[in-house]
Amino acid sequence: MSRNDAALGDNHTFDPTIFNTFINSFGDATETSFASASAARYSRVVAARYEHELENKGFMYALKQYVLSYGETGLVLAVLGDPKEGKVPLEYLKVLFRKQFLTCFEDSRLTTIIGEERLPYNEGWRPIDTAIKQSDINHMIFGLIEANEHKETEAVDISVATMFALRTVVRNILPSYCSIM
Predict the structure, then answer these.
(1) For residue 149, how many C-alpha atoms fall within 13 Å in the half-sphere facing its CB?
(2) Which tens digit of pLDDT belongs to each residue from 58-74?
(3) Phi, psi for residue 25 in degrees, rounded to 5
């Protein structure tokens, strides 16, 4: 949602271009829904695949990445919003992910201050009263998958990538563990 992929360099520093593209995919909405969050998540996957192709880097998006991608999105929605409905004010996402770059004068020098990403407490967010359980995250994942307009295309993509990954394991790793091969 807000970082580049490791294969393309820095995967831990906030990337304003990636995040702005992600957040702009919600259009004029003021809050997320399963459909809008799923579309934004999938748009990021498609953009990452394209960026990998431009850089001639291998893009791995198999079953593991598929589940983690939905899980990460579901977790953010559950923590910041309603763990049943997938609704989160977009302002909360902006506060959580976006770094604030402020330029000011400090000791007669121009200084850039980088504000920390934070929970949107000042904007009205409050932790929910009950713990978020795995069943809540599963509900979020299934809600996001169900709302994905591109689920068939994504299913084909992960199936092909999963088969490629399994072939790689069989060819490269298993022979060293199996005397039969």
Answers:
(1) 6
(2) 888 888 899 999 999 99
(3) -65, -15
Give the predicted TM-score (pTM) of the model.
0.80
Per residue in 108-150, pLDDT (tens digit) is 665 555 556 789 999 999 998 889 999 999 999 999 999 999 9
Compute the residue count for the chain: 181
How far is it, in rounded angstroms, from Cα 105 to Cα 157? 51
Q: Token pair for residue 175?
A: 């022979």
Q: Please, what's the b/e burial string for 163-178 (b: 16 or more CB within 10 A of its CB; e: otherwise)?
A: eebeeeeeeeeeeeee
Q: Kindly report the CA angle at 80 between 77 and 81, in degrees rounded to 5?
A: 70
DSSP H or E stretch at residue 104: strand 100-106
- Residue pair 139/84 in contact (Cβ under 8 Å)? The answer is yes
Q: What are the structure tokens assigned to 124, written together?
A: 């009205």
Query: 63 with 162: CB under 8 angstroms?
Result: yes
pLDDT at 180: 47
Q: Which residues contact 144 (CB under 8 A, 6 or more apart)?
A: 34, 37, 38, 41, 70, 73, 74, 86
